[in-house]
Specification:
Layout (H helix, E strand, L loop, with lengths): L8 H12 L4 H19 L37 E7 L16 H4 L2 H6 L8 H6 L1 E2 L5 E4 L3 E4 L5 H12 L7 E6 L3 E6 L5 E4 L7 H7 L7 E12 L2 E7 L19 E6 L1 H6 L3 H23 L2
Parallel strand pairs: 6-10
Antiparallel strand pairs: 1-2, 1-5, 3-4, 6-7, 8-9, 8-10
């Protein structure tokens, strides 16, 4: 492919019109055809400048502060992994609530450990001692037993667990966070794959930045977001060139979101199979040679 700042569309059109207005059409008819095919080959698979610019389909409220109304608070979903720490001024009082390797928290995570791969951004000890949310939304917590946390925000889940512990430890303090927040980005991004996040708040732009940004062949008007939540799957088209994306309810991502960035037609035209490419360029080259011979025979 090539960029439009190398082959300027307006300049090319102006030059082409000059050839069309030559005084001797019979002498230059073949030259016009030759120039047309050359220009067509030069502009083939080009990515225009406007296709590379985000938020260019409308004005942004520059130098103004606007309220953020679409921010979300993530809720706990089945197969999430939680880190739950209990502390107290009396270490002996909370000993039963501290998971040991292979204990209450560890045994239920064996399957998760077997399925996990390197580069997760979470160390093995955290994965092994975290609390896995089963498909019914429960975790098995030491002493207090099964606790329903599915569908709750971290804040509500924190209060739920704390209230279950207080009868045993009156000064207990509980901290709670996600261990396995991840988003999958595929398609026209520099580094496709899983993106692990430590913060419960992440936007579409932050996720793309973590994946190394979009490639020049990314179709910024056609980004697919697939979200599975509460037993339902949603398919959402995101347009990065529309400034209204900042107010979208899907601008803030949730755990396990899948993002696919579609390629532009320029990319599709540049990766055809080798046989087709050889045939296409061979035919074009043969046509050019034939035209050149015809010109010099006149």
């Amino acid at each position: 492919g090539c960029r439009s700042d190398v082959v300027n569309d307006a300049a090319a059109a102006s030059t082409f019109s000059t050839f069309l207005n030559l005084r001797n059409p019979s002498k230059h008819s073949s030259m016009r055809i030759l120039y047309f095919f050359t220009l067509l080959l030069l502009t083939c698979s080009c990515v225009q400048h406007k296709q590379l610019v985000n938020f260019n389909q409308g004005p942004l409220p520059l130098n103004k502060a606007e309220a953020i109304l679409n921010s979300i608070d993530l809720s706990i979903q089945p197969e999430d992994l939680l880190q739950i720490n209990v502390s107290s001024f009396e270490p002996d009082a909370i000993r039963a609530f501290v998971p040991q390797a292979g204990g209450a928290g560890g045994q239920q995570n064996n399957n998760f450990m077997q399925q996990s791969t390197g580069g997760t951004g979470v160390n093995s000890l955290e994965l092994f001692t975290g609390y896995f949310v089963d498909r019914a939304g429960y975790i098995d917590f030491p002493v207090v037993g099964r606790v329903k946390v599915g569908g709750l925000t971290l804040g509500v889940a924190h209060d739920t667990i704390l209230n279950r512990i207080l009868p045993y430890v009156s000064d207990a303090v509980v901290s709670l966070r996600f261990l396995n927040l991840k988003i999958t980005l595929l398609g026209e991004v520099a580094q496709p794959g899983l993106v692990r996040i430590s913060n419960k708040r992440v936007t579409l732009l932050e996720a793309i930045g973590m994946a190394g940004d979009l490639t020049p062949y990314a179709d910024r008007t056609n980004i697919l977001l697939v979200r599975e939540k509460d037993g339902q799957r949603q398919y959402i088209n995101m347009n990065l060139q529309d400034p209204g994306i900042f107010a979208s309810q899907f601008f803030y991502l949730e755990q396990n979101d899948f993002i696919y960035v579609s390629p532009t037609k320029a990319k599709i035209g540049g990766i055809t199979d080798q046989t087709s490419r050889i045939f296409t360029f061979g035919s074009a080259g043969l046509s050019l040679i034939t035209l050149i011979i015809a010109i010099f025979r006149r």
